[in-house]
Design goal:
Chain lengths: 480, 115
């Protein structure tokens, strides 16, 4: 026996165990730390434990001693363990309609990816740009954001990043090619995140926030789009413009022939392309108009709800042989556990009175100063937190708290506080931990950490101010 | 016949081992790691090209070697990109890009397909 290998075999599991407990230990230490603190005035004992559960969730999702989906599943266990809810209460949010709507959008993303439609749309936009770098960036960002509105944005970015690699190989000079690649890849990541702002299923935080808003008022798919789309239309061109200043490129014109050749290759053309496109258009149309069409057509209630439409679309695609069970088995199901965990935690915080206590604590900061200042602070805080915390957790903690605060204060309404904070979770631009898109870019090594932080922070500050101003104007105009 | 094998991890090692049975086949290996599994197992002494699985890098290798066939054996784990979300989609998209730029047949080898 090789003596040198013996201690290694003994030590390796120990090191793994230490590594695991290292991070999990921090999560536990923070949670226990909150639990042993004296209960603050105005907070019930249950609420105190709920705050500890929120700290546990935040730390667990930020430090990730286990993968994110498993972390999501650990949240209900802790909620039950702390005596905050029973098994039915904690797991019920995991089967809400919003979960199945997101699931449907994941399956649609798979159909687009499987048949190469995402890639071909990007190539078509590059060809349309004629190789002009500004237009090319606009085109690829446009495709990334358009698709991310309706289907999972990290999956969209994962398909588009290699397209950017292919396009940038048209530049011979290595340094110049790297500049182009950095510009395109950041553009893809940022715009995929921004696109997710527009719809309920665009991101986990939207799904969580929408779940809470639906509990206090009539809140439809279209209600979200009503605010999400104008905010996107403001921030998208702003991001495109700023990005060109943050990542200046020497090359102004690229050879679009590479994209043109790729686009015309028959081997990558699926016979189902057109059908998928038309199906998507019909699905989106029904998502937007379903609630109007239902009473007009005398259809049973919720038959044309977004969730039912998403599930029916998946069934149709499956019947047509466009996707099958083998395809959809591989999608990121774990994403759903994170949404479920966010909803479960948020509900517990509300039920135990922790959100009211939080709202009381922060109300001087929100109600005292001018509204614009409060909005900038809230949006910026949410944007910074989303870089280190999962965006569903940010929404789960903040949204019920802001709803509670708004309900207690006649000068506010819940939407005007909850939406800007939720939208700001889109600005996870600065760290690999901020979002799946940034994690992917970081893993490929295309951009240095320093570059990511520099571009991300500048864009976050400007976008946060832009978003806060947008909502402030809506409030002034009494549109919200 | 010259075959470029992209990836010399566990799947690549098995592919190379099978190809080595035919002395008429010239195998060229590509892997970004210094000591991939095929080298550790002494199936090959060293990797011919230390390049990552990007269209730029692979185009360079293909121009240099002018192969008859390319076998992509790189798995998500071999890419050492970690366990970030959608990394499998990214790796598959990269494979597709390589297949698109190559003028010679490019065939992906999945784990279940090699002996």
């Amino acid at each position: 026996m090789n003596k040198k290998s013996e201690p290694l075999r003994v030590c390796l599991p120990c090191r793994r165990l230490l590594r695991f407990f290292g991070r999990f230990g921090v999560v536990l230490a923070l949670t226990v730390g909150v639990l042993v603190l004296p209960t603050p005035e105005g907070l019930t004992l249950e609420g105190h434990r709920a705050v500890a559960a929120a700290v546990f969730t935040g730390a667990l999702l930020a430090l990730q001693p286990v993968s994110l989906p498993i972390a999501g599943l650990m949240v209900p266990v802790v909620l039950i363990g702390l005596g905050l809810a029973d098994v039915t209460q904690t797991f019920e949010p995991f089967s809400r309609p919003i979960i199945f709507l997101v699931l449907g959008s994941l399956f649609l993303a798979e159909a687009l990816r499987k048949h190469g439609l995402t890639r071909r749309l990007a190539l078509a936009s590059i060809v349309a740009s004629g190789g002009n770098i500004k237009k090319l960036l606009l085109g690829i960002m446009g495709i990334a954001s358009m698709l991310s509105m309706w289907v999972e944005n990290t999956a969209t970015a994962a398909v588009l990043i290699p397209v950017a690699l292919t396009i940038s190989r048209g530049v011979q000079d290595v340094k110049k090619a790297r500049e182009v690649l950095t510009l395109l890849v950041l553009g893809i990541a940022y715009s995929a995140s921004l696109g997710g702002m527009v719809t309920i299923m665009g991101s986990a935080s939207n799904a969580v926030a929408s779940g809470f808003l639906a509990e206090i008022r009539v809140w439809s798919f279209l209600d979200w789009v009503r605010y999400g789309l104008p905010a996107f239309l403001l921030l998208f061109p702003l991001t495109w413009w700023i990005l060109q200043r943050l990542v200046p490129v020497t090359v102004k014109q690229l050879d679009s022939d590479v994209a043109n050749r790729e686009l015309n290759k028959k081997e990558f053309r699926s016979p189902f392309e057109r059908e998928i496109m038309y199906t998507m258009i019909v699905t989106i149309f029904l998502w937007i108009t379903g609630s109007f069409l239902e009473p007009i057509l005398g259809l049973p209630s919720t038959l044309l709800s977004p969730t039912v439409i998403a599930v029916a679309t998946v069934a149709y695609l499956s019947m047509r042989g466009i996707i099958n069970w083998e395809d959809v088995k591989g999608v990121s199901w774990g994403f759903l556990f994170i949404i479920g965990a966010g909803l479960s935690l948020g509900e517990t915080l509300s039920r135990t009175g922790a959100t009211e206590w939080f709202a009381d604590v922060i109300s001087p900061l929100i109600i005292g100063p001018p509204l614009i200042l409060s909005m900038v602070v809230l949006v910026f805080l949410s944007a910074l937190l989303t870089n280190v915390m999962n965006n569903a957790t940010v929404a789960a903690v903040f949204v019920p708290m802001l709803i509670s605060l708004a309900q207690a204060s006649p000068s506010f309404n819940p939407v005007q506080l909850a939406l800007p904070v939720t939208f700001a979770t889109t600005f996870g631009y600065s760290l690999p931990s901020a979002s799946g898109r940034m994690a992917l870019i970081s893993a490929t090594g295309i951009i240095s950490r320093k570059e990511m932080i520099r571009c991300g922070l500048i864009l976050t500050v400007i976008s946060s101010i832009g978003l806060a101003l947008f909502f402030y104007v809506l409030v002034l105009l009494k549109w919200i | 016949m010259r075959i470029v094998v992209i990836g010399a991890g566990r799947i690549g090692a098995r592919v190379i081992w099978q190809l080595q049975k035919n002395p008429k086949i010239e195998v060229v290996t590509v892997d970004p790691r210094e000591q991939p599994y095929a080298v550790q197992q002494k199936i090959i002494t060293a990797v011919d090209f230390h390049e990552a699985l990007t269209p730029q890098a692979i185009e360079y290798v293909l121009n240099q070697t002018k192969p008859d066939l390319v076998l992509v054996t790189t798995s998500t784990e071999d890419m050492e990109l970690g366990k970030v979300p959608a990394v499998d989609i990214l790796v598959e998209a990269l494979r597709q890009e390589i297949a698109a730029i190559a003028e010679v047949p490019v065939i992906g080898v999945a784990r279940v397909q090699c002996g």
